[in-house]
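Why this split exists: single-chain examples teach little about how molecules sit against one another. For that reason, every record in the complexes split bundles all components of an assembly together and asks for one structure covering all of them. Below is a record exactly as it appears in the raw files.
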Amino acid sequence: MAHDCVIVGAGPAGMAAALTLADHGVRPLVLDRAARPGGQIYRAASASPLPDRSVLGADYAAGAELITAYTASGADHRAEADVWHVGADGKILFSTDGGTCQAEAREILLCPGALERPMPIPGWTLPGVMTAGAAQVMLKSDAVVAEGAVFAGSGPLLYLIVAQYLRLGVKVAALVDTTPRDNYLRAAPLLAGALRVPSMLTKGLSLLHEIRQAGIPVFRWASDLQVLGQDRARGLRFVTPKGAQEIAADTVFLHHGVTPNPNMTRALGVQHDWNPDQLCWHVRRDPFGQSTLAHVSVAGDGGAIVGAEGAQCEGRLAALNMLCRLGRIDRATRDHLARADLTRLKRLAGVRRFIDRLYRPQAALRVPQCPDTLVCRCEERSLGDLRAGFDAGARDPNALKSLTRCGMGPCQGRQCGPIVSQLLADWRDEPVSEVGYYRLRSPQRLLSLQELSRFNRVHPAPEEAQ
Amino acid sequence: MFRSLRTDAPARVRVLVNGHPVEVPAGQSVWSALALSGQITTRKAALSAQDRSAYCAMGVCFECLVDIDGLPNQQACLRRVTEGMQITMQTITEDTKAEL
């Protein structure tokens, strides 16, 4: 028995979609990998282990309200349900509680969210090197922090976690800002568009002000980053206009932007397009988030980077379109109810363009510069290994993967994929859109034969089946 | 150096990290238990056998694969601690032979 709608991912997009569906009498099955709804941005917002969660900011508190509404919506929420296959036939397979489950859907909404853009600098595989997102996860879920860490890179998420650490009285060794000086000039023409949502800009500016007021060392215009240490991270070396610098630290948090988590949509085989402004692949969609497979929609950062508020708008729009496709509302109603979110998304896009331009990562930090720096962390393939593969005739990501094993490890290219496409584009002197990406397949996680053998089907509740 | 900011007194569970008993708040991630115990190496790299540790902490990098209660390839950032859990650094490399 098929569900009317299955939503994968209970972050802002998935939760907002579920609420809209519930408003029109559709009870979705929601499969979420985390223990609690919220996604990465609102992780544990409803049950924070922190003594005072207000230090995380007003947006995080607002997330708690969304979670409360979502929890009361009647959605069939399955926590710790790790989806590893979504089929064009509407069948979805996921792992939960040591077993395997299958659900079937007439409409599928994928909200896989974002992951952080890899920063393949020398030493980035050493223990003690993590992402700024990792710092956020540890703080929100478990109230665990790293004392005396260096934060390096660029972008709002980096400044946010530094500010949060400082508010909590956690010592920060330094903020090493890699935002190139030219970005400020290039972003200036887009400022007017960003000013249409002034609250977003003031939020960003106040974060930077807060960090400056705290008096921690801030290094700007940094480049040539290298993690120090042999068997684990001991610090960070980098170059600023004032010369080479070294900061000692046990923990180095890296960040220079986020990209859609591509594995689910790639494995499903929907079309993607390279976006040169966000330097990542977007899922090809109509204004309601419908992909090139009509019964599959994608909302939130998993389709293109839109941020938490944009994700909620997209979630509601996708829900309206699915309701229309399910015959619950007519097209005129869909279009009428969609107006506010479509308008809001347009405004938010202005801010996004500004942020993308201002925090566009350095080209030299997106691909390794030293031959022995690892590209593929799982299979330990270095820049030199890949170049040898290219010289041996592997011109596209899949050929390079077959020849070198780059991308064949457990992360299934989530870390090396963007690097490999960019390297090949550079070497071929062609745009990334021509180079393409890895061909991915299910399952999207490691599975044991034991959990495959414990097989169940998830059906809609009887009252819906009628 | 990782530390916990918790000021409440959460229920605690006892786990074994590489054979050493460690007490941690119930419900937190296996990775957090490793971080707080100071034993941050999760696995050996597949070829070089160099130490590796959690990188993303959100389930996408697969660096934090550990052995939990005898079952290898468990993502420490996604699993939560339970009483008596045995968490061990994963040492599977390309030279490792399967035990049949």
